[in-house]
């Protein structure tokens, strides 16, 4: 017998028929002897519908009292789906109870629409579990110190589930979703992409941040911090499939790097076309330059990713970095008006038609020549590399956006990711 947390995404909760299926699946797990906690998302489309209603009444506004109401509003989506799931479980003959975040309590800070969980009180939930009940806890929300309802940001139910699992020291947190696991890359780009049986938490973090949208990134950070074993699996299998088979399906995000890990050096290819490149040419090479440029950018709340400063020649250097494409125009404008005149730099250029492609794998730590293999593969395809950045377990290149799919396919092949490795 183990304490298990299940999380169901919006699609899995999308209709009463699907909610009944979720209830049947959860009942199966409970009848197998597990203590069950379930964290559902709102029914698919519901959060958008609610926020859309608010927009009809008032344009988006930065003010806190408006954001408070957005959270009070959006949080109802999960309250409805949670209560519906409890009703469905009861009709399956199970004892079940649903709680909103504030009833648990899931305590957060007061940052409406992007609140962070601070603590979870497990007393009430444990008492119900000990009494043999299935406990359903709303995803996506909590309550701040003053009793205001808060939400965790879009996709936040993943984080709720992981946080609940951490607080209850659950044996495993199973994230049921509309994909059946984490793949070597996006199967829409590379049809031969393969589902990974296991992936390390660090690799998952790199892949999640690169836009493989399987899990909200914060949930992966949380899982890493509290060592919550996480599994991503399909909610579209028949609810009555064999439970042992189900428990091994999908992708396990694991912390035991050695024995359990597949032996591949590179585990996946991630890519991201949301970036844009900015270069400032002829910057005087004196102390404080990087700070003057990037400090101004940071102050405008613009996140910077890859950064390159060249070797200087005649006391001048070139400075390039990437930002989110949505911030591109604003960053250029800011640099032109506020930074360049002060720097005495000669020129600013930019390119919004770039993308970033990365190879990710913990095996890269202990193997040399992996980056070189990546560069050779790209050169054989005639793809020019504009920027390079590396971390212990990742090498990223910035290239022309029009070569993105070609690069991903070629790299997937070069690293033989379509071949199953010993699991
Ligand atoms: N319902 C929320 C959303 O649509 C949270 C979630 O589903 O994770 O973003
Ligand atoms: Mg989601």
What order do the strands of the largest sheet run in, or round the barrel if closed? 3-6-2-1-9-11-12-10
What's the number of helices? 13
Look at the helices and sheets and give the structural class: alpha/beta
Distance between the termini: 26 Å
Largest sheet: 8 strands, mixed
Strand content: 15-25%
Average pLDDT metric = 92
Which percent range fits the helix content?
A: 25-40%
Count of DSSP strands: 20
Ligand names: aspartic acid, magnesium ion
Cα-based radius of gyration, to the nearest Å: 24 Å
Name the poorly predicted regions: none
- Gross morphology is globular
Overview of this protein structure:
The protein has helices spanning 16-31, 46-57, 64-91, 101-104, 123-130, 157-167, 201-209, 217-226, 243-247, 289-299, 328-343, 370-380, 404-414; strands spanning 3-8, 35-40, 96-99, 106-108, 117-120, 134-137, 141-143, 149-151, 172-177, 198-200, 230-234, 251-254, 268-272, 275-284, 304-309, 316-324, 347-351, 354-360, 387-391, 394-400. It is α/β, with parallel strands linked by helices. The strands form five sheets. It has an eight-stranded mixed beta sheet with strand order 3-6-2-1-9-11-12-10, sandwiched between helices. Strands 13-18-20-19 form a four-stranded antiparallel beta sheet, sandwiched between helices. β7 and β8 (149-151) form a beta hairpin. α1 packs across α3, α10 runs antiparallel to α11 (328-343) and α12 (370-380) crosses α13. The longest helix is centred in the N-terminal third of the chain and has 28 residues, at 64-91. It is globular. The model has no long low-confidence stretch (mean pLDDT 92).
